[in-house]
Specification:
Largest sheet: 2 strands, antiparallel
Strand content: under 5%
Oligomer: single chain
Number of strands: 2
Helix content: over 70%
Structural class: mainly alpha
Length: 376
């Protein structure tokens, strides 16, 4: 089965292949530059606009959010472009693992994979839809303001961006942003979630395999063969998760800092603005950041929890009815499963819901500190 046909990552890989971010061909290689460079130019213009907004704190914070969000989307996309070979090799590994399960005679394991595929596909569609509607809302918001403003504040040195026809031309140039930014921002989130869901599904299959190791009613040779198969399978899962961690650990560390700072800034902005439109927009942006962060950490947390269930399943194998050789092998396997199987933020902190809560606590602490300083 081709990688685009695997529901876990199919939507995202198909999108990136069409844009030549992954699997480029000589005839399509130009597409990734046509996709990324205009957004990069807009992001630079946003930075120039931020310099002009320095004295207006609410406007500065709001535009800082847009600048950071688009910069983050660019950072993700450039990461995939730069590490294209590593991502393609990893996706090939996923395809091999998936096809080995899909073509096996284990109907239970295939059922687990079908469920995982449906979950990942629904999540990818939800993410793209929510992102598209969110950006459409940002695109329409200037229509409800009294003064002229662009959806994404941009500026060029020596150019009056609110003067006709410059204003209209820039506004029209930003009309494709819901489609462009959705295709740039959300596929990485959905891909990460799909890869984590696959890791969790493989661990669920491993727990089921361990449950098939019986007691004295099974021949010793059969039990030993099944245990050996479980150990080999666990080794493949270990390699898969470690390679996934190497691919994403630095980007999730950078995003933890960016998102934490954005949430803190938006909470602070919420205390100093009075416009109902801006208040609604900021609340929506805060929930967007929280949703993306929760998607990351919840999926990674599920992976860590399922790994703990593997250790429990190994412990519950009826070893007391087996031979000395079987017991020694099982004991070594049990020791191996005690090692945490997790994705780490910057290869330091485990991506769990506890870490997600700590990140939110830190953002809120900085917010209260800012509010205390400015209220004096």
């Amino acid at each position: 089965m081709a990688i685009e046909d695997i529901g876990l990552v199919g939507i995202n890989v198909r999108m990136w292949r069409h844009l030549a971010v992954l699997y480029p061909t000589p005839g399509r290689n130009w597409r990734k530059f046509a996709f990324v460079l205009p957004v990069t130019a807009m992001n630079l213009m946003q930075f120039v606009f931020l310099l002009r907004m320095w004295g207006d704190l609410p406007a500065f914070i709001l535009n800082m959010f847009f600048f950071s969000a688009i910069f983050n989307a660019l950072m993700r996309t450039w990461l995939v472009i730069v590490k294209r070979v590593q991502f393609e090799e990893f996706l090939d590994q996923l395809s091999t693992l998936f096809n080995s399960i899909h073509e096996s005679t284990d109907e239970w394991g295939r059922g687990i994979m079908r469920t995982a595929e449906r979950e990942a596909r629904r999540l990818a569609i939800l993410n793209l839809t929510a992102s598209f509607l969110d950006i459409v809302g940002a695109l329409l918001s200037p229509l409800f303001r009294e003064e002229r403003a662009h959806p994404f504040g941009v500026a060029l040195p020596g150019v009056n961006m609110t003067r006709t026809p410059v204003y209209e031309v820039v506004y029209l140039a930003q009309l494709p942003t819901p489609l462009l930014l959705s295709m740039m921002y959300m596929p990485f989130v959905s891909l990460f979630a799909g890869l984590a869901i696959f890791g969790k599904a493989m661990l669920q299959i491993l727990v089921h395999m361990l449950g098939q190791i019986g007691g004295a009613e099974q021949a010793e040779q059969v039990r030993l063969q099944r245990l050996t198969s479980c150990i080999r399978y666990h080794t493949r899962v270990l390699g898969y998760v470690r390679e996934l961690n190497q691919l994403v650990t630095n980007i999730v560390a950078a995003e933890a800092i960016i998102f934490g700072s954005i949430i803190c800034s938006l909470l602070f902005c919420l205390n100093i603005i009075t416009s109902p439109t801006q208040i609604i927009s900021i609340v929506m942006y805060i929930f967007t950041m929280l949703y993306v962060l929760f998607t990351y950490y919840n999926r990674a947390n599920d992976l860590a929890i399922e790994n703990n269930r593997v250790a429990e399943a190994v412990y519950n194998v009826p070893w007391y009815e087996a031979s000395i050789r079987f017991r020694k092998t099982l004991l070594i396997f049990l020791m191996q499963t005690q090692n945490p199987l997790e994705i780490r933020v910057g290869n330091v902190y485990p991506m769990t819901l506890a870490m997600f809560q700590s990140l939110l606590n830190a953002s809120y602490s900085y917010f209260t500190m800012l509010r205390g300083v400015t209220s004096k």
